[in-house]
């Protein structure tokens, strides 16, 4: 008979009420007790798994029904049958449609648009001098998503989308924290209804327009028109909602933390700027900077290591299962934390240090196996990872080229709502044009 995972010392657990104080610290402390540790969360037994091989097994080998958790159940009315929650037999054909359009190569068609939007945004920043990085990048990434994935100008409803996304996030966070009551349900229903108005408008517009565009929505409409039963009108709505919710805040947070960290790391920022200016002087087009200046990508990858936008992933054990020599009982909620894994000193030397060169070609072999999971793993790995990496790298490149950011006030306090990491409040920075590029942003 296999032993159950060791239970977290009740004294430690009591001193660290989960999600009331600092959930990331809480998860880190749970992990310090062992690689597979049980803890009580309200009425619920949860198990945190922190051994890289066991984590890999959970994410890649567990059946897809393991994705059904209290969190996905809470989000289901909003996300419907979009990719994140879809299961067989529909998941595979739907995933293929999205994935084909978001491969490493395919997303390069969006680079020019992202560059144009970012340059326009940076011009606005220079006029303002001081701004809230998190809010500004939230707007920019939403505009990028509209122009690229949706082929639509989101200008008219950016504010509505930002508000409804925030409201839905608050409600889903409540589900993670085990307090999804009638009030939270009503709030989520309201946010869903508001989001639906925008999404139905986008979809309806697309259904009457010619669908020859290169954006993802056009591709989804063509899939619907193909007559394949995996694609229906309600699927189109669900996938559109899913793309907005999955593809916006994650990238906004990544770019916020990358740029804020660079503001504290002037040597790395200066090195990056020099490499970018050299590339432009060699005739590299701005849209190529993410590919031609590897440090840009390494800054983003290191940011995702230290600040994974989804710091905890959840699965349910669908049957009694052995994990790392322990018995996990059917029905247990299993938590895997990219945040914990990516700061584990057993895998990452000096884990707290921001060191983008960890991801450089020369050191790639030193990267630990299965201990870097900002996009998850296995067949359900993030479908937008190439898009997110390209967008984040281009934003970091262009903002670093054109501006010198100075962090003002206290460092942002990071909060893990349970589903997403974010700064608790504004992330104020002072903006100046860089000396080398003054006047370059015309
Ligand atoms: C830095 C930005 C992003 C991060 C860190 C991120 C992270 C993740 C993670 C960890 C998962 C897997 C969740 C799990 O296994 O439980 C996921 C799934 C997914 N993400 Fe992302 N994501 C990002 C951006 C995007 C973007 C930009 C899009 C779309 C445009 C997107 C679309 C998706 C989809 C469709 C899935 C579900 C895939 C499936 O189940 O087949 N994500 N993401």
Description of the structure:
By secondary structure, the protein is of the alpha+beta class. It is built from 17 helices and eleven strands. It has a domain at 1-68 and 311-355: 2-Layer Sandwich (Uridine Diphospho-n-acetylenolpyruvylglucosamine Reductase, domain 2), CATH 3.30.43. The protein has helices at residues 10-15, 23-32, 52-61, 70-79, 91-101, 111-128, 133-148, 158-176, 182-208, 216-225, 233-247, 249-264, 266-281, 289-292, 294-306, 338-341, 385-402; strands spanning 36-41, 44-49, 130-132, 313-316, 321-323, 326-328, 333-336, 403-407, 414-416, 421-423, 428-433. It has a four-stranded mixed sheet. Helix 4 crosses helix 9 and helix 6 packs antiparallel against helix 7 (133-148). Residues 83-84, 95, 149, 242-243, 246-247, 250-251, 254, 309-310, 313, 374-376, 380, 382-384, 387-388 line the site of protoporphyrin IX containing FE.
């Amino acid at each position: 008979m296999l032993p159950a995972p060791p239970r977290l010392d009740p004294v430690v657990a009591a001193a660290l009420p989960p999600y009331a104080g600092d959930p990331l610290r809480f998860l880190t402390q749970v992990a310090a007790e062992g690689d597979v540790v049980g803890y009580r969360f309200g009425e619920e037994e949860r198990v945190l798994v922190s051994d890289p091989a066991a984590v890999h097994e959970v994410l890649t080998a567990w059946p897809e029904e393991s994705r059904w958790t209290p969190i996905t159940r809470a989000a289901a009315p909003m996300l419907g049958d979009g990719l994140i929650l879809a299961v067989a037999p529909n998941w595979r054909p739907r995933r293929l449609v999205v994935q084909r359009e978001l491969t490493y190569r395919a997303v390069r068609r969006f680079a020019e648009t992202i560059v144009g939007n970012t340059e326009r945004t940076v011009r606005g920043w220079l006029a303002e001098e001081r701004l809230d990085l998190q809010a500004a990048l939230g707007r920019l990434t939403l505009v990028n998503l509209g122009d690229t994935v949706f082929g639509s100008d989101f200008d008219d409803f950016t504010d509505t989308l930002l508000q409804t996304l925030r409201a839905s996030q608050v409600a889903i966070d409540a589900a993670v924290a085990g307090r999804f009551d009638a009030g939270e349900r009503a709030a989520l229903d309201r946010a869903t209804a508001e989001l639906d108005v925008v999404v139905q408008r986008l979809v309806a517009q697309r259904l009457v327009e010619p669908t020859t565009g290169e954006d993802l929505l056009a591709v989804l409409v063509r899939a619907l028109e193909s007559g394949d039963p995996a694609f229906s009108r309600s699927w189109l709505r669900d996938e559109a909602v899913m793309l907005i919710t999955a593809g916006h805040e994650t990238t906004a947070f990544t770019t916020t933390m990358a740029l804020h960290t660079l503001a504290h790391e002037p040597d790395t920022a200066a090195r990056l700027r020099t490499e970018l200016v050299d590339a432009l002087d060699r005739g590299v087009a701005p849209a190529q900077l993410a590919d031609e200046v590897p440090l840009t990508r390494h800054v983003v990858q290191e940011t995702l290591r230290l600040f994974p936008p989804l710091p905890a992933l959840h699965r349910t054990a669908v049957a009694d299962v052995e994990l790392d020599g322990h018995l996990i009982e059917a029905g247990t909620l299993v938590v895997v934390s990219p945040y914990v894994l990516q700061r584990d000193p057993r895998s990452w030397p000096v884990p707290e240090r921001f060191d983008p060169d960890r991801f450089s070609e020369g050191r790639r072999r030193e990267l630990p196996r299965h201990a870097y999971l900002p996009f998850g793993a296995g067949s359900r790995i993030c479908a937008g990872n190439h898009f997110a990496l390209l967008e984040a790298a281009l934003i970091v490149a262009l903002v670093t080229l054109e501006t010198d950011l100075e962090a003002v006030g206290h460092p942002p306090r990071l909060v893990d709502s349970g589903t997403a990491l974010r700064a608790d409040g504004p992330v104020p920075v002072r903006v100046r044009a860089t000396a080398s590029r003054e006047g370059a942003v015309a």
